[in-house]
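Q: For a teaching session next week I want to show students how multiple molecules come together into a single three-dimensional assembly. I've collected the sequence lines for a complex. Could you give me the predicted structure tokens for the whole thing so I can convert them for display?
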Amino acid sequence: MQFALLIYHSPEEFDMRKNDYRDPHLGAWRAYYRSLVDARVYVGADALEVPETGTTVRLRDGKRRVQDGPYADTKEQLAGFIILELPSVDAALEWAARCPGASIGAVEVRPLAKEALQRGFTG
Amino acid sequence: MNGSNQENTHRTVERVARESYGRLVAYLSVHTHDLASAEDALSNALVSALSHWPQDGVPQNPEAWLLTAARHSLIDAIRHQRVVLESEPAVKLLKEDALETIVAAECPDERLKLLFVCAHPAIDPAMHTPLMLQTVLGLDAVRIAHAFLISPKTMGQRLVRAKTKIRDGGIQFEIPQEGELPQRLDAVLEAIYAAFGIGWDDMAGVDQRGRDLAEEAIWLARVLLQLMPSEAEVSALLALMLHCEARRAARRAPDGRYVPLSEQDAKQWSTPLIEEAERHLVEASSRGRAGRFQLEAAIQSVHAERARSGRTEWPAVMFFYEQLIRLSPTIGTRTGYAAAVGEAKGPEAGLAVLHGIDPDDVSAYQPYWAVRSHLLQRLGKTSEAKDAYDRAIGLAEDPAVKEFLLQRRG
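A: Of course. Below is the structure for the complete assembly, covering every listed component.
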């Protein structure tokens, strides 16, 4: 089964990205990725630029609505995602707890809806 | 009724609930085998206590009061069930004698039977500890879910499923026969120790929740010892947990930094807890062959000895691990053995022990990588050590442990 770990950062944690490589938090992230790969559960991952760089688009009654900034107006914002191949949600929660993001912001675990995607393509 | 009175009553109800919960659930379910109904009845009784006691005063015998209230609630529920069930003859009706026994005046301590039911071989081993925490100690599913890192909804469903199996699956509320006893008792001890382990890993000292769970496990072991005072492994388990508990304060520096066992200030260890642990260990070892928990407690006892002698007898630690591996060759035991060999005979010998473990078994096992990185570093294999440190850091959950390992990694 594949799971997404959705990483939510506070503004302070986004700021930490500017720190140099000796920052312990960044060191913890590097080590975390390393163990995901070595444990052979890693499928893919990416980080997102800071929320202010986002632009949100909606179409309402045929009219375009474009909004500066991220979709959700919350303090903690989506900062990146990791896709893992794991036997169960229990294992996914364990990896989420080890994620350095969990001790500052939050990590949401969600199964990938492969079936829904498939139906979209074939149905 | 004023606020402080209400608060006092609240505290009394909490205290009585803590002391009597398991006794009452065990007693109310021992004949019906229906844990969920017993718990519902008791929680109704507790709610009722919260509304009656502030006005009427706390009764002389709070436990008897709760029992009476819970009985009434349970009997109402059984009668109601019966009306519903009578239209479905296929469904097993609750036995008439069960009802009569619940009404009986005395309330014998049936917690031992309840403990054996929670750790019954027909129940998923992963649910043994959660069941015990809920039915014997009255912890709610949400709190158990936090500790076990499972979604509260899922934990709730798993608990319900386990209780249904106990009610309908013919699981007997009884103390196992002599031939069966060692194995069945082992499952009970494992479940209690699992609760302690979770409380222990759970960032002691920083997070109140973790501390509580370790305390709950010690409480459970004390209850069990009271019920089975002559079982060596029960005394040994309590000794093991008390030895670990004795070091709680020393595991963190005042600024929150993680302090490994070898660097802990032995003066900060609790002497009364160590002495109590030693008494239980002596008691256990006077009763014959050493079981798993006796060996684990003996290892902790060697570590505790440093408070007096100023040094750790690593060969003794190694010796007890050798015995332990014979009983249970788990990854944890073998990793602990490797660490002891590393100290007693040098890092190369320790690494040789680690090499004997299948790498697939340890791809997500943090202590293996922590020991490995330390041994490699002592050998001066800097780059290999850094790789192993990364694995240990990535697999750690506690930020203080991560930071400690990052510093060692350099």
